[in-house]
Amino acid sequence: MQVTIRVIGIGPGDPRQITLQAIDAMAGVDVFLALEKGDAKDGLLQARRDILEHHAPQGYSLVEIPDPPRERRPADYDAEVRRWHAARAELLARAILADVPDDGVAAFLVWGDPALYDSTLRIVDDLAARDDLQVSVEVIPGVTSASALTAAHGIVANRVGEPIHITTGRRLADTPPGADANQIVMLDADLGFRHTAAADDEIWWGAYLGTPDEILISGRVGDVTDEIVEARAAARARIGWIMDIYLLRAAR
């Protein structure tokens, strides 16, 4: 079976940040595929539906696929992620074979940009390696959560001449010397800066960027850490999920 797969970046949450290229890419899609993550994150799925209502002029078919379970604190993190991606690819392949016409177009709507800490393109690689699918891939970039964060705070991501290091909360403690001047940290469920940053370091934190639930906090780490912890916990309890990111800047 031949299929074109479009991986469409839709930005971090503000519908106005969806690019014209992304809107054009939604036209002509036969089936949109979405991994359903349970009731707690149904708001994310509904946001995709709302986007399609506005930007899929041909009407749309959305196939929702239950996301396979994943061990969050495995002994071998890389192996568990590979196993999880393979399980996702298998479920998605079944959906494509069942619901997408031969020589048709399937698409994923990806939060932010598909190239920045998102697994969709790796899963598409797994699909392309299958014997029962001949896959052509089109990637449409999106506004990143990193750029949305700096825009929301009205700041530049780095001081003059300094590097920017993009990492995850899991790897924050492994930041090499010299790379810690300006760190953009994603996927940090434990707010790792509490254990790595100095009190005089600066932080710009944001959650639900570009949505009506957006929260922004900034200041010295020593002054605003408790505020961030409390705001994050309250928002997660109220909404059921959280998407946040922060810029951590070492004090001079």
Automatic annotation (TrEMBL):
Biological processes, Gene Ontology terms: cobalamin biosynthetic process; methylation
Keyword Methyltransferase among record annotations: yes
Signal sequence, renumbered to the chain: none
InterPro entries: 4pyrrol_Mease, 4pyrrol_Methylase_sf, 4pyrrole_Mease_sub1, 4pyrrole_Mease_sub2, CobF
Pfam families linked: TP_methylase
Residue stretches making up the Tetrapyrrole methylase domain: 5-224
Keywords: Cobalamin biosynthesis, Methyltransferase, S-adenosyl-L-methionine, Transferase
Highest taxon listed in the record's lineage: Bacteria
Broad enzyme group: transferase
Pathway stated in the Swiss-Prot or TrEMBL entry: Cofactor biosynthesis; adenosylcobalamin biosynthesis
Gene3D superfamilies: Cobalt-precorrin-4 Transmethylase, Domain 1, Methyltransferase, Cobalt-precorrin-4 Transmethylase, Domain 2
S-adenosyl-L-methionine recorded as keyword: yes
E.C. no: 2.1.1.152
Gene Ontology MF term list: precorrin-6A synthase (deacetylating) activity
Protein name as it appears in the record: Precorrin-6A synthase (Deacetylating)
